[in-house]
Amino acid sequence: MKTFQLWLVVGGCLISLLAPAPRNAVGADAKPTIKEIMQTAHKKPKELLKKVATGAATDAEKAELVKLYQALAALRPARGDTASWEEKTKSLLSAARAAAEGKPDAAAELNRVANCAACHKAHQ
Ligand code: HEC
Fold this sequence. Notes:
The protein contains seven helices and no strands.
């Protein structure tokens, strides 16, 4: 059993060596930082959030926002408590998913939950 587990680890390492993550896009990067996610998803004037919330985003852009929020929810900020962070990032993720699925009220919901000031006050 131990040997088997060791081989799984070795195999996993080999696979990750053979397939390096593409580094050109934040969404494709395995582990973007909170800062990078903010820059792609929220920083004006080309923020992905606004594109998705106004209905101007392509399907690929909607999927990228979902991916970024998934990564954001898995990260931990330097400040603030975990429960607050989880609650805020989960709301963002489910609103972005609803937008990607084309739910009618998704844009309004996304704008409501993407409360920049509230989250920055608690976690930035
Ligand atoms: C779920 C919480 C959360 C929400 C919502 C949020 N932010 Fe942030 N933001 C952060 C945290 C945490 C940082 C600090 C990241 C760091 O420096 O490590 C940050 C940093 C930033 C930065 C600085 C990035 C840099 O280059 O240093 C910008 C710009 C930014 N946010 C814009 C926005 C805007 C605009 C919105 C609203 C549309 C927003 N954020 C919503 C958590 C959030």
